[in-house]
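Let's do one together. I've listed all components of the complex below, 801 residues spread over two lines.
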Amino acid sequence: MENTLQLLSGNEALALGAYHAGVQVACAYPGTPSTEILENLARFKDIYAEWSTNEKVAMEVGMGASYTGARTMVSMKMVGLNVAADPFMAASITGVIGGLVVISADDPQIHSSQNEQDNRHYARLAKVPMLEPSDSQDVYDLMNYAFDISEEFDTPVLFRTTTRIAHSKSVVNADKIRVVKNLQPAFLYNPQKYIMLPVNALPRHTKVEERMIKLARYCETFPMNQVIWNKKKIGIVTSGVAYQYAREAFPEASFLKLAMTWPLPQKMIKSFAAKVENLIVIEELDPFLQDNIKAMGIKVSGKEIFPIVGELNTRIVTESSIGAGLIPESEKSVVLPPAEGLPKRPPLLCPGCPHTGIYYTLNTVGQRTKLAESSTPQEPKLIITGDIGCYTLGAYPPHNVLDTTACMGAGIGQALGMEKAGVKSKVVAVIGDSTFMHSGITGLVNAVYNQGHITILILDNHTTAMTGHQEHPGTGVSAQGKETYTVDIESLCKGIGVKDLKVINAFDLKALRTGLRDSIDKDELSVIIVRGACAVQVKKRQNPRKIDVEKCTQCGICLKLGCPAIQSANGQVFIEPTLCAGDICGLCEQLCPQKAISA
Amino acid sequence: MKKSMDILITGVGGQGVVLASDIIGETAIAAGYDVKKTDTLGMAQRGGSVVSHIRLAEKVWSPLIKEGQVDLMLAFEKLEAARWSHYLKKDAVVIINKYEQPPPSVSLGKEKYPSDDELVAALKRRTDKIYLIDGNQKVKDLGNVRTLNIFMLGCFAAFAPLDDKFWRESISQRLPEPIREINLKAFALGRKEIEGVRIGTN
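Okay, and this is what the predicted structure of the assembly comes out as:
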């Protein structure tokens, strides 16, 4: 497929670019919008690719591999870098041998995240160079540079994408072939470099500062930083996808398009600024470029004009610029408002989802509908701390079963905190199997050690569902599809010291209710593993359920399951046969008081 | 100079919107276009609102289409056509699959699914070129309901500046042997179907 044009997403281009750049080891934990990078790399059988337990572990595996001279890539979503920040900072100070490229896929607009953090600040914090592509071709082309820079300057390279780069597809000419420089990785004894005792770390810090000075010189001639001359009334400094919006909104302006955004090419920026009448920065999220350009003593505007919150697009760039007098009012296009009064369509748990039964149970036992519909804030009868995964959707009606969601693994600690603070209500933490492996285990160890009385529900659907069904240590299959050891959650909990441990079938409503009641009434810490396969992964679907309209009294109880297959039109509830998961589920059949639902 | 085209595909998670937009993109590259496409999905696998932007031109900058600039909308579900009506250009073409999937708030009786008149009114703010197609029924008759997205691509093809041979190639490349033939049939069926139904100014 060499030398042909392909339509590739940023993530696909990234994987292909890394492969051609000779990557030998790749590790990641799934997270939108970064997941497909490792999925694509894992298909190349001549590299080692793994799903690591979490991003911190991924970064540590990456450091080790890089120390042996292997070209290594570690990829994650932006909040993953918070988890990996400790080894990331350590990798900065020890430096590398084989190129170490760290991908941070940021999520402006919070399409699927818990915040909108701008990870460009990490490059400055960690004193590492940063590259930012503006489309899939850029991604592919920058990958070689990323590994070369890493090796030449003895530093990890932060490669920052955003959702719109990672998940957009554009045309790529993948014109390189794979070259692996170091065919036999080897680790050489070098305590001054690798053992960060104070005696070694302080001299390393000096080296880091020297490295940044060299990089500041290098970036002045970095070939992918590009000046595009046009009229000189307006000069725009930009990077990433913002460049595309800016080009469309300002067809006549001059551009300084930066592909390397840390360190910044001060001379290049100064020379560009001197040649244009009005210097503007167009960037998404924080005024990262703007503040650093200001610090060079250059007059520049940016965030006074363009929003700091959310993604940009051509309309926002154009309208903001009209407001600031940069684009004439006559360019303003008439934009209709969205049609009013349309029902929203929030994401839902799928038909046959193994979370539905326990969420219905938590809703009724905890009287959550009443809680959610109350006009004044009430103390929940049952406090339920949430976590990150498909099961976060339980926050929406009709379930309304979550009180908190913060970051991976936080729910267990939060639950213990509430109990220890002295709340009167019982506290339950909900966490998925992949998230439990990622960062729930340490929370459970802490809760057992500190004698908590909370109930922890591990919703075990045997996959990392929300990001598209990646393997994890509990599934027994590796990222490259090989059979491997399965970490057994029951034995793990027992080993930690959990005395009250139950395993309940996710599709048995009676058992769920009895089990939950028993655990929350107990004066000790409980773990309930709610087990059921993710419905999307179950291929065999038989006997969709039907509602007998003669028996149905329209009581609406089945609708409270929140199953997308159970719908209501013209006053009659029905089950959409193309959506119903059939025999694998049967929750509605168990629930119907009239026995009106059957296969 | 190639004629540029901005296309929006809207639907519900699980209907195959993303595959359809991938195939449009791949067909357009084969036909010599610059292409960018971007999908906006909710955070779940199924059931949420999905919209895909596809842009074809000599040179495309932004992957997102500006509101008011869409030349053609392909809607796999009725409500999802109206939801994105503010993206339409004046006199844009809209092809709607008549299928109705009530969102949870409708099933729970908290909101009403809009009537056809209400949905069409939202679109008519911009255009009268609205084609309503009973895609679900057609592909059911064909024998595979999962070919809906390719059937809709067939409807789109009648308006696209792309040669038939490119379509056959890109569909064949994307769909594996056992379902290739039926999908090519669905594509041809969609193309034939579009020549029929049109709502006037009533």
